[in-house]
Amino acid sequence: MLPVLLSMILIALGIIHFNWATGGTFGFSESLPTKENGERVLNPSKIDSFIVGIGLTLFGFFYLLQSGFIEHNHLPEWVMRFGGWVIPIIFLLRAIGEFKYVGIFKRVKKTKFGRFDTKLFSPLCLIISILGIINQLV
């Protein structure tokens, strides 16, 4: 059941990114790191949002494959093992961050993004990472 939970979370995050790629604004401003003066650190395009949405959705489908919910007779076992470690590592790195604007160890914390990152984004990435690691070990 853990892979199914991970897939639901990741596909939901993918849908949010697809929403941004098509012009949606729900949560968009809160999701972008800013300097203390409000200037954005990142200015992703709609294509960037679309690419991230594809990646998150593919990660979600990976876990559906791993769960057996979707059959994967054509994929070598090493792909499933390798992917099962790569995804949690990516989310662990995101949770740790780059030490200034993003992640658990960020220094800029009093911006709108900083507050959301502290309360939601980084903990969610850490949870995804931990669940992915547990999934690999069981």
Automatic annotation (TrEMBL):
Membrane-spanning ranges: 6-28, 49-66, 78-97, 118-137
Taxonomic superkingdom: Bacteria
Protein keywords: Membrane, Transmembrane, Transmembrane helix
Record keyword Cell inner membrane present: no
Database matches in Pfam families: DUF3995
Keyword Lipid metabolism: no
Signal peptide limits: none
Protein name per Swiss-Prot or TrEMBL: DUF3995 domain-containing protein
Native source organism of the sequence: Flaviramulus basaltis
